[in-house]
Design a protein that fits this description.
Blueprint (H helix, E strand, L loop, with lengths): L6 H6 L5 H4 L7 E12 L9 E8 L2 E8 H13 L2 E11 L2 E10 L9
Parallel strand pairs: 3-5
Antiparallel strand pairs: 1-2, 1-4, 2-3, 4-5
């Protein structure tokens, strides 16, 4: 997996794996990085924008929720950048861990792809 090549540096940058993030207590601030998988923007009754996707790294997947205010800041990144860094708060939908994004960046620190 491409993320495996960068894990040592990601850890130094306080970017945790998706499996590690999923084991943290609810409400914990987390920073993760990976591949955007299946982004979709469903219609909502309120008309507000919400985007859901899975983030994949070498350890697995975690669900990500992006609300309208954050989406407006980074909408191009979600649908075009193959790899992203996400900062957010850990939440659970039922027993499934999820990250509510507070920022999304379309680059991985020091990613060389080699």
């Amino acid at each position: 997996h491409p993320m495996e090549l960068q894990r040592v540096q990601l850890n130094k940058d306080n970017i945790v794996s998706t499996s590690c993030a999923g084991k943290m207590p609810i409400g914990t601030s987390v920073k993760v990085a990976g591949l955007v998988i299946r982004p979709h923007r469903p219609s909502t009754k309120s008309g507000k924008i919400v985007v859901f996707f899975s983030l994949e790294d070498e350890t697995g997947l975690i669900d990500v929720t992006v609300f309208e205010s954050i989406y407006k800041q980074c909408k191009g990144v979600i649908f075009t950048a193959p790899m992203v860094t996400i900062e957010g708060r850990l939440d659970f939908r039922g027993s499934i861990p999820s990250i509510v994004a507070s920022s999304i960046h379309g680059n991985i620190p020091n990613f060389s792809g080699q």
